[in-house]
């Protein structure tokens, strides 16, 4: 059963011990930790089904982990994990279960929630998706002129865009050569206009992807797609070119999409956790159902590990606790994600939504104020491009920036020895960030310089190091490995939410901006008086005077 006590973890003895431990160890340099313990990598690394996590390059000792595991016990993490797995309504503000893990269960599993086994429902939708994908991929599904589908356009935003977009790009090597998937999310008309100008309505299939089917950005893009399509075809042809993915069958019908062409999912799947559901349809079309099933199996492998491994050997728990250490006890503001894989270049954006929409909260799950730092700003960019852009600040700036480096050991593309160069760069960065470059090393390099130049250059060539990082090494970016990686981050975010006492599954904070936009929209085209602050009034007036109708 859920623990309904107020979250007062910052009043607990272990919280105080962690602060005290941070003060006592904050001057320690990782370089020395490695010198003192030649086995540090072995002690602080972990492999699960071919996914290696090296977490040895952190400002942490055995004692740090002991205290963090005690923290996890204190918040009853195991109990919360079980509550999630069993389908208890841990999303308390929306009174919903949180069961994206159920989407990854194999067909022979059983998960009874309120007396109903959810697995057959999940697999019934998967089978419908499978049949649809096979028809489209084989060319049996024909457009209104009898031609097969060549382009698929996913119209969705947030979780209905980012998850499938990342997976589609990452699994590019597995994609159907005759099908191209496009993602349109932005309400900025250029996104849909520039996508459609390359396409042929006779061979284009649209997926309107929206959990709620009320998101204005998506519905406007769907309207624009429909109008574009109807310039060439008729209403009767829509059924062959528009399908929907949603939990809201009535709204789908009202929009004019045949319920036969709708693939459903459930309110116990959060938007940012929904790529494993029918929201993954664009990916299924691109890579095929078998490949998508391997992605689901990878997610399930991580779930099995997460729900069963002891905390000391539990990858999501360890990753989460490391993050808590830096966010809450070091006060680090940000966390960077650096995938050294071009196919994973949008992964930072997906994790940004996953983490910041989940744990970007200042009150606990029962409304209590949280007097400590919670979710970090997540950012990042693909390596090695990021090295030539912002790594300067990581190496010599003044901020603590914990980083995750993600690197496959093998590439799908054998372009000379370029993959080895990529790997060498990734490892070099984690080494440089950890060890830095000490004065004696710089002196040795500059020994020929005259004194005044040496004095000027020496401090500029020093690298303090001690910048923490985790490295996640995949054997290869397969659907299974990708599933494991994405589920790993989902569980990491959940564990951090439990430690901080946050409900990671609602997102009230995005509503306010939406409400204000509704108010401002009619004001842009009216002459009426404005009652905002002077900045907003001024900007609306500026638009009124400059916009060309
Ligand atoms: O931005 C808020 C949000 O609700 C996200 O959580 C969600 O992924 C996105 O909007 C899209 O929502 P929907 O799938 O309902 O269109």
Automatic annotation (TrEMBL):
Function in brief: Catalyzes the reversible isomerization of glucose-6-phosphate to fructose-6-phosphate.
InterPro entries according to UniProt: G6P_Isomerase, G6P_Isomerase_C, Phosphoglucose_isomerase_CS, SIS_dom_sf, SIS_PGI_1, SIS_PGI_2
Species whose genome carries this gene: Pseudogulbenkiania subflava DSM 22618
Subcellular location per the Swiss-Prot or TrEMBL entry: Cytoplasm
Molecular function per GO: carbohydrate derivative binding; glucose-6-phosphate isomerase activity; monosaccharide binding
Keywords associated with the record: Cytoplasm, Gluconeogenesis, Glycolysis, Isomerase
Active site positions, chain numbering: 357 (proton donor), 388, 514
GO BP: gluconeogenesis; glucose 6-phosphate metabolic process; glycolytic process
GO cellular component: cytosol
Pathway: Carbohydrate biosynthesis; gluconeogenesis; Carbohydrate degradation; glycolysis; D-glyceraldehyde 3-phosphate and glycerone phosphate from D-glucose: step 2/4
Swiss-Prot/TrEMBL catalytic activity: alpha-D-glucose 6-phosphate = beta-D-fructose 6-phosphate
Principal EC category: isomerase
Primary subcellular site in the record, as a coarse category: cytoplasm
Keyword Isomerase part of the UniProt annotation: yes
SUPFAM superfamilies linked to this entry: SIS domain
Enzyme Commission numbers on file: 5.3.1.9
Entry's family note: Belongs to the GPI family.
Protein's recorded name: Glucose-6-phosphate isomerase
């Amino acid at each position: 059963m859920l623990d309904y006590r107020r979250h007062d973890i910052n009043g607990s003895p272990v919280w105080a011990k962690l602060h005290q431990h941070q003060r006592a160890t904050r001057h320690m340099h990782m370089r020395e930790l490695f010198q003192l313990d030649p086995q540090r990598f072995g002690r602080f690394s972990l492999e699960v089904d071919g996914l290696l996590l090296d977490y040895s390059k952190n400002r942490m000792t055995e004692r740090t982990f002991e205290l963090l595991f005690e923290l996890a016990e204190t918040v009853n993490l195991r109990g919360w994990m079980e509550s999630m797995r069993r389908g208890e309504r841990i999303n308390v503000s929306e009174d919903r279960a949180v069961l994206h893990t159920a989407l990854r269960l194999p067909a022979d599993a059983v998960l009874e929630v309120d007396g109903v086994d959810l697995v057959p429902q999940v697999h019934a939708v998967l089978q419908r998706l499978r049949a649809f994908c096979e028809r489209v991929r084989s060319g049996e599904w024909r457009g209104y002129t009898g031609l097969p589908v060549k382009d698929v356009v996913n119209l969705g935003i947030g979780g209905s865009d980012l998850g499938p977009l990342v997976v589609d790009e990452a699994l590019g090597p597995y994609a159907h050569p005759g099908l191209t998937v496009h993602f349109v999310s932005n309400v900025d008309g250029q996104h849909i206009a520039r996508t459609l100008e390359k396409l042929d309505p006779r061979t284009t299939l649209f997926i309107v992807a929206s959990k709620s089917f009320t998101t204005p950005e998506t519905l406007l893009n769907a309207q624009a797609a429909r109008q574009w399509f109807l310039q060439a075809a008729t209403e009767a042809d829509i059924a062959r070119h528009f399908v929907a993915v949603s939990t809201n069958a009535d709204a789908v019908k009202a929009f004019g999409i045949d319920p036969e062409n709708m693939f459903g999912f459930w309110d116990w799947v959060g938007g940012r956790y929904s790529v494993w559901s029918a929201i993954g349809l664009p990916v299924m079309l691109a890579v095929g159902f078998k490949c998508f099933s391997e992605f689901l199996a990878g997610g399930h492998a991580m779930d099995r590990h997460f729900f069963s491994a002891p905390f000391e050997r539990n990858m999501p728990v360890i990753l989460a606790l490391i993050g808590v250490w830096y966010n809450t006890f070091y006060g680090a503001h940000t966390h960077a994600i650096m995938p050294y894989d071009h196919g994973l270049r949008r992964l930072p954006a997906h994790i940004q939504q996953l983490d910041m929409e989940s744990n970007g909260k200042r009150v606990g799950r029962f409304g209590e104020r949280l007097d400590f730092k919670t979710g970090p700003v997540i950012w990042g960019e693909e390596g090695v491009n990021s090295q030539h852009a912002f790594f300067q600040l990581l190496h010599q700036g003044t901020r603590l920036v914990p980083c995750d480096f993600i690197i496959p050991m093998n590439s799908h593309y054998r372009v000379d020895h370029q993959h080895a160069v990529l790997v060498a760069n990734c490892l070099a960065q984690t080494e440089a960030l950890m060890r830095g470059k000490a004065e004696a090393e710089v002196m040795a390099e500059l020994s020929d310089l005259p004194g005044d130049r040496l004095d000027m250059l020496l401090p500029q060539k020093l690298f303090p190091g001690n910048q923490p990082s985790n490295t996640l090494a995949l054997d290869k970016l397969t659907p299974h490995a990708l599933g494991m990686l994405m589920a790993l981050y989902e569980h990491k975010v959940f564990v951090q939410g439990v430690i901080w006492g946050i409900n990671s599954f609602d997102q009230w904070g995005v509503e306010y901006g939406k409400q204000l936009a509704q108010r401002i929209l009619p004001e842009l085209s009216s002459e009426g008086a404005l009652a905002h602050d002077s900045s907003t009034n001024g900007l609306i007036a500026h638009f009124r005077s400059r916009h060309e109708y």
